[in-house]
Structures are given as structure tokens and as C-alpha cells.
TrEMBL record:
A GO MF label: 1-acylglycerol-3-phosphate O-acyltransferase activity
One BP term from GO: phosphatidic acid biosynthetic process
Organism: Polymorphospora rubra
Signal peptide segment: none
Protein name: 1-acyl-sn-glycerol-3-phosphate acyltransferase
Upper classification of the organism: Bacteria, Bacillati, Actinomycetota, Actinomycetes, Micromonosporales
């Protein structure tokens, strides 16, 4: 992505946010070449902290793409805030309503126009005690079927040192180590052209989440556990 094509508002975000993150974190980036395509891509990331969007956004930007995150549509209706989010090309998503189909249309349009759409398939920060991924929701799979775009897993470890959802501890010390690694696109060819039935979407989502879990294990080390299943349904952007 040519930096000169960012426009005023996106460039303003970069000028304000990137220097802070550069001081705040000590970064280890890997696998950026998997995002360096000229076409649309679906980025699926693990969700271990409320600091994830900052770290993931920094990584995706450094890989040469502009990150487009999903956000609750209600936030986009807040005066000033909503306009700013739209100006920097973030995507409003309606959840659990008849407008969900319109949200999918927006996502499809973003991907088909060459965007890098970032989805947290878990829909919320993981509830797994050691911060391994949970089972995912089917939004990324549904978008992949609708667009045929590659689904690139991006695993993060370190944002929990900025904010740990288990302890609610927040750190502002400089040079917090964070590691982000992208892997090759998830192999979803066997479902190419399939109807988006529940069975198909569930199978695709399982494939995505296992690949994401295993990529995280490459960063953390050790043997990852089976995908964790919450005891109660969680709502979120991955749906």
C-alpha cells in the first residue's frame, strides 16, 4: 500500500498512534509476506487482550496494508467518533439482527475492493485460562465463502503484558515485548463453491482455529490444548 495514498485522516491516525506504539512495545514481526498481496485478504487473529487491536493494527500497517477492523454499529452512531471511524475505513457490524446480512455485504465489499479485513473469530477475548484460543464463530468462514479471498492467520503473544484480561492489570512501561506472526493462508480449497450451511461453516471455522492455535504454539512453544469451549455462548464480532 503506497503511504501517499492514505489520505488525511488515515495519515493523521498513523502520525498520532504509531510513535506511541513504537515506544511502548518491543516488536518481533514475522510472516508479513503473507499479507503483501495486491488483493483483498481476510486476517484472522487470536484475541488475548484488549490491546490486541493496537498491536495487530501496527503489524498489518507495517506489512504494507491498512487494517480494517469490525466494530459494533452502535459505536458508529456516536457523534464525531462514528464519523472518524468511517473516515479511517473501519467497518460497522450489526449483530444478532435482521441487519446482519447488510453487515456481510459491507465486509464483502471491503474485501473485494482490496482491503485487509481483520476478524477475531472468537468474538471476544479468550476465556481459556492460559490464553489459548477458544472455538471460533463462523463469520470469517462465511466471508471466505462469499469472496474467495485468502484467510491469513495472525497469531499474537505479548499484548496481555500491556493489559491482562485475567488480572485487569494495565502496564504503560516502555518496550513491552510483543510478537506477531502471520502464516500461510488456511487451506480451505475443499469447501470452494460450497453452500454456507451450518455444517460447512463449522468445519471451515474449526480448520481456521486449529491453524491459528498451532501458529500461536510456534510463538509460545509447548503443546497447545484442544480448542477451548466456553460453558456459555459468547457474542462478538466473529459471529
Amino acid at each position: 500500500m503506497a503511504r501517499r495514498r492514505l489520505g488525511f485522516w488515515r495519515r493523521l491516525v498513523v502520525v498520532l498512534v504509531k510513535p506511541v506504539l513504537t515506544l511502548w512495545t518491543r516488536r518481533t514481526w514475522a510472516g508479513a509476506e503473507y499479507l503483501a498481496t495486491g488483493s483483498g485478504v481476510i486476517v484472522v487473529a487470536n484475541h488475548i487482550s484488549h490491546a490486541d487491536p493496537l498491536v495487530c493494527g501496527h503489524y498489518v500497517y507495517d506489512a504494507g496494508r491498512w487494517p480494517q477492523f469490525l466494530g459494533k454499529a452502535s459505536v458508529f452512531r456516536v457523534p464525531v467518533v462514528g464519523r472518524m471511524l468511517l473516515k479511517v475505513r473501519q467497518i460497522p457490524v450489526e449483530r444478532g439482527s435482521s441487519d446482519a446480512a447488510k453487515s456481510l455485504d459491507l465486509l464483502v465489499a471491503a474485501v473485494k475492493s482490496g482491503g485487509a479485513v481483520v476478524i477475531y473469530p472468537e468474538g471476544t477475548t479468550t476465556r481459556e485460562p492460559d490464553l489459548w484460543p477458544m472455538r471460533g464463530k463462523t463469520g470469517a468462514a462465511r466471508l471466505a465463502l462469499a469472496t474467495g479471498a485468502p484467510v491469513v492467520p495472525v497469531a499474537m503473544w505479548g499484548p496481555q503484558r500491556i493489559f491482562d484480561p485475567r488480572t485487569k492489570r494495565f502496564s504503560v512501561r516502555p518496550r513491552i515485548p510483543v510478537e506477531v506472526k502471520a502464516g500461510p493462508p488456511v487451506d480451505l480449497d475443499r469447501w470452494s463453491g460450497a453452500a454456507p450451511t451450518k455444517a460447512t461453516l463449522d468445519e471451515m471455522t474449526e480448520e481456521i482455529m486449529v491453524r491459528l492455535r498451532d501458529l500461536l504454539a510456534e510463538i509460545r512453544g509447548g503443546t497447545p490444548p484442544p480448542l477451548w469451549q466456553p460453558t456459555a455462548p459468547e457474542s462478538g464480532a466473529g459471529r
